Structures are given as C-alpha cells and as structure tokens.
Amino acid sequence: MPKEQATGEVSLSKTLLLPLSARPIEALVAILCILLAVYTIDTFRTGLFHLQHFRGPWWSRYTRLWICKTLASGNSAQIFVDINKKYGPVARIGPNNLITDDPEFTRRILAARSHYTRGPWFDSIKINPHISNIVSERHPGKHNHLRYQMSAGYAGKDIPDLESTIDERIVDFVRRIEQDWLSTVEGTKSFDIARRIQYLTVDIITHLSFGKPLGFVEADTDKFNFLATIETQLPIVQHFSVILELNTWLSRAANIKWLRKILVPSHTDKTGIGMIMGLSQQVIKTRFGQHAEKKKDMLGSFISRGLDATEVEMEISISLVAGSDTTATAMRSMLLSLISNPRVYSRLIEEIDGAVARGAISSPITEEEAKRLPYLQAVIKEGLRRFPPITQLRERMVPPEGDWYNGTFVPGGTFVGLNAWGLQLNSVFGDDPEVFRPERWLIEDKERLQKMGQVQELIFGYGTTRCLGIPIAMMNLNKIFVELFRRFDIQAVNPQKPWTSICYGIFFQKDFNVRITRRAPA
Ligand code: HEM
C-alpha cells in the first residue's frame, strides 16, 4: 500500500491544500478572514477581561491607537493629567497599558529593590537599535554596571572644572545679550529666549562632555540642524514606544546595509544627532591609543572607568539629548512663571538685590551662595514642580508574579506608565497645586515639607534609574536667574501668547519673544 494511503495524514493535508492550488485567491481570503477573526476575538477578550478593573477611555482597552493619538496631539502631558483625574490614580490607557499619578505607587515601582523592570518602551530611545545606552538599558545588571561607570562623571567628581565651565558659558550668554539684544525706551529688540536658552544648554553639556562648546551661542544658530532634526524626528519616533513592533522591524531593517544608512544616525551624517556623533568621534579618537590625551571632562571620566569608544560615543550623544532639552525646558518654564507673576518677580529681585548689596554673592554667583537664597530655592523647586520637563510614559513592566494595587490584582507583564505632570498636582501640595506659588516651600511645618519634597523629587525619577544629571541641572538653575535678573528686566513681547509649547514627552518651545532692558541701579 502506498505510504500516503497508509497514514491518512498526507491525504488530509492534500485535501486541505487542494483548494489552495485550485482557487488560490479564495483560499488566501479565507485564511485572512480566519486570522482577522482570531485577532478580533483576542482583542475583545483582552479588552474585556484583561485589566478589567481599571477604568479609562472606552476604546483604549481595544487598541494602542488611543495612546498614539494622544502623543500625536502635542498635548499629552495635560491629557494624561485629565485621565487620572477622571478615572482614578491608576487608569487604563491601552490593552496592556496603565498610567498612574499616585506618588506612593510610583515610588514602589521605581524603588531600588522593586521587581518592576523597564518595559520595551525604553527600546524606543536607543540611538542605534543594536546598541543600548544608560537611559535605554533594560537589563538591571547591565544598567547598574553602566551607572557605576558613569556616575562620577555626571556628579562632577571627576570634573574639577564643572562649576567654572558652567560659569564661563553663562557669563558669555549674558554678555551677548548685553552687547546685542538690549531694548531701550526708543525701541524693542525681540529676543526668542526659548531658542537661545537651548543654544546655551547645548553649549554647556558639550563643553562639559569634551572640553569645548559646540558654539551654538556664538553662532546664534542651530548648528548642524541638530535641534531641528530632533523636532522633526521625535513626533514620529515617539510612536515606536507604543507600536513596539516598529522597534523590532527597525532593528531587523538596520541589519541591511543600505537601509541602515537611512534609518540609523551615523557619524558620517552632515546634520542632526549623526553629525554630533561624528564630532564626538573625532574627539574620542584623540583619547584612545598610545598617545591618548588625558582630560578631566565627562568623556575622560567615562573612559577612565572602562567605557569603550563605541559606548562613549553613544553615551555622550544621549547625554546631550537628555541634558540639554530638559534643562532648557526647566529654565524657560520658570522664566515664564516669573515674568507673569509680578509678586514673585519682585520678591526674587528684592532677594537678589539684597544679597548683592550685602556682598553675599559673587559675580557670577557660586552654587553655594545660591543655596543660601531661600526665595530662589523656593522658586526653583516650585518651577520644576509646576512644569516637569520630562513627561514621557517611561513604562515599567509588572513582575511575572503580578502585583496588587489597593486590593486589585495587576497581572505580570502589564505596562505601567508614569504620569509626570499628574504626580505634581497631588493634594499633598494643598488646595492650589495648579498655581505657581513658591511660598508653599517656605513654611515652618517640617513634616509637610518632607512629604511635599518626597513627591517633588520624583520629577527626576527615583531609585536605581534616578537622573544622573541632577548636579549639572541644579547648578545651571541656581545660576541663570540670578545672572539675568541682577542685570535685566524681562517682559514678554506678546502677553496674550507668550510662547508656543508643544509636548512630545519632552517639550518643543519656541517664539518665547522677550524684551530685555537694563535694570536701573538699585
Ligand atoms: C531639569 C532637568 C532634568 C530633568 C527634569 C531630568 C529628568 C530625568 C528623569 C525623570 C530621569 C529618569 C528616567 C527613567 O525613568 O528611567 C532621568 C534620567 C537621566 N538623566 Fe535626567 N533630567 C534632567 C537633566 C539632566 C541632565 C542635565 C543630564 C546630563 C547632563 C541628565 C542625564 C540623565 C541620565 C544619564 C539619566 C539616566 C539615568 C539612569 O538610567 O540611570 N539629566 N532624568
């Protein structure tokens, strides 16, 4: 007997395959219909039964497109605030996605001993899909090792000139305003301070990174279209953090040489991050090999602690993105809050003038001196609280055994996003958390201050992934306002629409046109 007849299996498969060869189109349509039916049933089953105890926009339970739509709106920070207000401190925003504005829960998720890990969201912030950096690394062990290698550089321990470098850049920025941008009673020189502040922060980070600034302030332009490229790419790239399959495809496509050239920034590019990588690479070359230059900057610190040339290139590039944009947003939003609050503005100026008159501050002010100005400290704390510069979801993954939130089970593998703005509107700040009011930090009640501080510090993350750039960011903030306001009065040119601020997880802010005049001597 032929083998086929003996098994019966083959004849069954022949029967199944027959329509494929006889009527291929109909068979294909049938297969697609079956797949679609399976997908639809699975989508509805997940939508209805997975995370069913968490409330959220009704259609977000069936599709991730709700998150995409929200991110694309350019207003996601405020939409996420509204979502947690409406649906509770843990809300559902996707088939497998929650978002929380609960500070306790956030601390528990991010705590050093937590079993939560960075979710695939973090793959979307790799510069090269095949190489991780400290901000994107998901493996806890590898991340801890990188952090150990890099913290001394970021904390300034290995950079004795940290403060004098920041001074040099800020003094240069102020001098340029004095030379070219002062308005007078006769006329106005409109100064887009949003753009210029970012030139300053790019110059500061690059100067700290490899010993000299990129020269954005001097050129008064977005050199190499660096910022413009990020602004064009980020609105697209942010969808990679939601449609995770895009990351996998990108990673595969990047294996093909000619596609890699299009998709992945390369140090041979003439613009954008690739151009910056190219410049970094030139400097990096001088730091390796037999005649390697030894310098006490961030690059020198990373190399001395064991990072190789490729890792250093990635880390320097990511620090430029992580550090320049965030600090610029913090400076711009505080500046807007200050110039739109005459009471706060005059109290800060009074404090600065008093300190100058007493000889209590140098020129430029040192960080130690700034820390002794209580109202300035309150302004900085409140400014960061009222406008956290990073509002990306930064989703963490629930450990495989699952977790409990207020008596409700959260299954393992669920993504929990962090609502950066919502967290800072917590009732611990009183009944006016939406108001910029530095005085809330100047109360006597130590216990209350501590509770507020524990929520406010979440702006920089928490636990083993807490921001490494805090010393650099705080030093900038401690200096910039004193150096500006001890010399100048600043007003918005158009108080009806002082700026344009668009949120793509980080902020693109422009057209913040101000009129700067020299202050009359006190
Ligand atoms: C006001 C300014 C800043 C804010 C609000 C801020 C905020 C944050 C936040 C929220 C994270 C945590 C990310 C996560 O959840 O995993 C983070 C991480 C990080 N930030 Fe910042 N940042 C600021 C400035 C800077 C600066 C100036 C630098 C560098 C020059 C920097 C470098 C980093 C690095 C390297 C990490 C990764 C830390 C890790 O994964 O271990 N940041 N930052």
Automatic annotation (TrEMBL):
Protein name per Swiss-Prot or TrEMBL: Cytochrome P450 oxidoreductase
PROSITE patterns given in the database record: CYTOCHROME_P450
The organism's place on the tree of life at top rank: Eukaryota
Similarity comment text for this entry: Belongs to the cytochrome P450 family.
Cofactor or coenzyme needed: heme
One Pfam family this sequence matches: p450
Keywords tagged on the record: Heme, Iron, Metal-binding, Monooxygenase, Oxidoreductase
Organism, as annotated: Periconia macrospinosa
